Amino acid sequence: MAPNASSNWLLSYCTVLFPALIWLIFRILKKIIKWPNTHESTAGIPPGYRGLPLIGETLQFMAAVNSSNGFYDFVKVRRLRYGNCFKTNIFGETHVFVSSTESAKLILNNDLGRFTKRYIRSIAEVVGHQSLLCASPQQHKHIRNRLANLFSTSSIAVFVEQFDQLVVSALSRWEHKGTIVILDEALKITFRAMCKMLMSLEREDELDVMQKDIGLVCEAMLQFPLRLPWTRFYKGLQARKRVMGALEKMISERRKRGLEAHDHPHDFLQHLLLMEDDPNSCGANEALSLSDAQIKDNILTMIIAGQDTTASAITWMVKYLGENQEVLDILKAEQLSLAEKSSPNAFLKLEDLNDMPYASKVVKESLRMASIVPWFPRLALQDCEIHGYKIKKGWNVNIDARSLHLDATVYNDPDKFIPSRFDDESKPYSFLAFGQGGRTCLGINLARAMMLVFLHRLVTTYKWKVLDSDSSVEKWALFARLKSGCPVHVTKIGEDITPP
Question: Furthest-apart CA pair in the chain: how many Å?
Answer without folding.
Answer: 79
